[in-house]
Specification:
The chain is mostly helical. It is about 70% helix and about 5% strand. It contains 22 helices and six strands. The protein has helices spanning about 5-35, 40-45, 45-50, 60-65, 75-85, 90-100, 105-130, 145-150, 160-195, 200-205, 215-235, 235-265, 270-280, 285-300, 320-325, 330-360, 380-385, 395-430, 430-450, 455-475, 480-495, 505-525, and strands spanning about 135, 140, 205-210, 215, 390, 395. Helix 7 (about 105-130) runs antiparallel to helix 16 (about 330-360) and helix 18 (about 395-430) packs antiparallel against helix 19.
């Protein structure tokens, strides 16, 4: 047995343990616990969190552009940057995989997972803002590593364990950022562009070829172009990343949803059958198991789609790092954007993908089998779009999906570059972040040229290993999340007076933020 074969087998065992045996229980368990402890906040306070998120986008306080000299970003920019990393190619491939593996009923179980995942995401963001602090540049630094060290670590006898888990989280995040967050995404971009927009003169010129596949001159050119574009955004720091995400993410989400609605409308007569199959098949023996696998594909990255991450990242602790940089005082305010993030990723984008697949005829709803000529689960969505967008023998639907994957995957790379930067900052200090960014940009080219999949298979395992310490932190601080939530509800919704806001774990920062909050309230900005 070769070294790579042995490494692959060992990684498969570890990955199965991390994602399936431990991950599923931890993720769903945490989501259910936080839902109960916050009084089903995502449901009972539905009107409030929608008003404070989608309903507040016209407010300059929420969506105003951040000047270049400022050290934080707007709440809307934080959301867009987080969505840039969470909405990836898995939102297309992952949904198709879940349906092919478990039938239409899998979609129902993904909705269930997202419902509870909303409160996992909420809890992470609340803790991220509550335990954040300023670095030497005056920028906010927050994330799972800080609430593990200063929250979980503050508990009796947990100081050393808290520091260890914080360091482990950052190491896994750093390693995953190069694979799942970089090379794996770029590899998919190049493969899809080459397939949808073939240029024979470039594709036929092979740079090298081995058992894992071949790499063409076309791939090299695309890789160099992506390095240039990625470098322009990533090396510009948080402000440029946030500005890029703010412009691209809303466009790409609307772009995909609009295209999906056209396909669904074209097959409007199948909409009723699609929803019927989702609910009826959700509790059939095959679909229940498939649905559980569908949940896994959505939040636990399994069933062979480890390199096309299908995840809203609720529970991984990754997007907490960007949400912690938002210009916000109240932890609950940013927590509600965490709910909206999961809602957008799953309830909107993934539901659109599911309905496209189920209404277009590429799946036989009675048997669950892929229709002849529709390809495999990896190409199912493209085939569904081709049923509408094919003119003169040219399959524009496949080209549409190739462009969508380009946008989804490239923004994922941009988002993950920030996560890796924050992990490096925690582990090695601010000075090391510049070197990391340069290496990260160079690795984009590697993603375009490498053919072996083991690198991102391993990085997916590290990605999953981020989840375990993060969820330990959330579970250990669940009563704190409940207290912060109750504090906010009592003050802002029930309008009780003489209650001191819970804004930070640090007494000094608590006083500073309290003054800022009072000033905002006096000016009428804190609606």
């Amino acid at each position: 047995m070769s070294f790579l074969d042995a490494l692959t087998r060992v990684n498969a065992v570890v990955n199965d343990f991390v994602w399936v045996k431990v991950g599923l229980i931890l993720l769903l368990g945490t989501g259910i616990l936080m839902t109960v402890m916050t009084g089903f906040f995502q449901l009972t306070r539905l009107g409030h969190w929608l008003k404070m998120t989608a309903g507040s986008l016209r407010s300059k306080k929420v969506s105003a552009h951040t000047a270049s000299h400022e050290k934080s970003i707007s709440q809307f920019q934080a959301l867009c940057t987080a969505l840039a990393a969470t909405i990836g190619v898995g939102n297309i491939a992952g949904v198709a995989a879940a349906i092919c593996s478990g039938g239409a009923g899998a979609v129902f179980w993904m909705w269930v997972a997202a419902f509870f995942g909303m409160m996992t995401g909420y809890s992470e963001k609340v803790l991220g803002v509550y335990f954040r602090r300023k670095n030497d540049r005056g920028e906010w630094s927050g994330g799972a590593m800080y609430y593990l060290k200063d929250g979980f670590g503050a508990k009796k006898g947990c100081r050393g364990l808290g520091k260890f888990l914080a360091g482990a989280f950052c190491v896994c995040c750093l390693l995953a950022s190069f694979g799942i967050g970089n090379m794996g995404q770029v590899n998919k971009i190049v493969a899809n562009i080459e397939s949808a927009f073939p240029i024979e003169a470039l594709s036929s010129r092979l740079l090298y070829e081995n058992e894992g596949g071949s790499v063409s001159l076309y791939a090299l050119i695309l890789g160099i172009l992506l390095v240039f574009l990625g470098g322009l955004v990533i090396l510009g720091g948080l402000q440029r990343i946030a500005a890029f995400a703010e412009k691209i993410v809303p466009f790409m989400v609307i772009f995909f949803i609009a295209g999906s609605l056209v396909v669904i409308a074209f097959h409007y007569d199948a909409i009723g059958d699609a929803f019927r199959s989702i609910f009826v098949n959700a509790f059939a023996p095959q679909s229940v198991w498939g649905g559980v696998a569908g949940i896994t594909v959505k939040t636990v990255m399994t069933w062979g789609f480890k390199r096309g991450v299908f995840s809203n990242e609720a529970g991984l602790g990754s997007s907490v790092m960007i949400h912690s940089n938002a210009k916000v005082i109240e932890p609950v305010r940013q927590g509600m954007w965490g709910i909206f993030e999961v809602f957008t990723d799953t309830m909107l984008v993934c539901t659109m993908t599911a309905l496209v697949v189920l209404t277009s005829g590429v799946i036989d709803l009675s048997t669950g089998q892929i229709a002849p000529g529709a390809g495999s689960d990896a190409t199912l969505v493209a085939s569904a779009f081709d049923t509408v967008f094919t003119f003169g023998g040219i399959k524009f639907g496949s080209k549409f999906i190739a462009i969508t994957i380009l946008l989804f995957s490239f923004t994922t790379v941009i988002g993950w570059s920030f996560y890796g930067t924050k992990a490096v900052e925690y582990l090695f200090g601010l000075k090391a972040t510049k070197g990391y960014k340069i290496i990260f940009v160079i690795m984009i080219l590697s993603g375009a040229l490498l053919t072996s999949g083991i690198a991102w298979d391993i990085s997916d395992t590290f990605n999953g290993m981020m989840m375990i310490p993060n969820l330990i932190g959330v579970l250990s601080l669940c009563t704190l999340v409940r207290k912060i939530t109750k504090n906010y509800v009592d003050r802002k919704i029930k309008k009780k007076k003489d209650i001191t806001p819970m804004l930070s774990y640090d007494p000094k920062l608590q006083k500073e933020l309290l003054i800022q909050l009072m000033e905002e309230e006096a000016e009428g900005l804190d609606a």
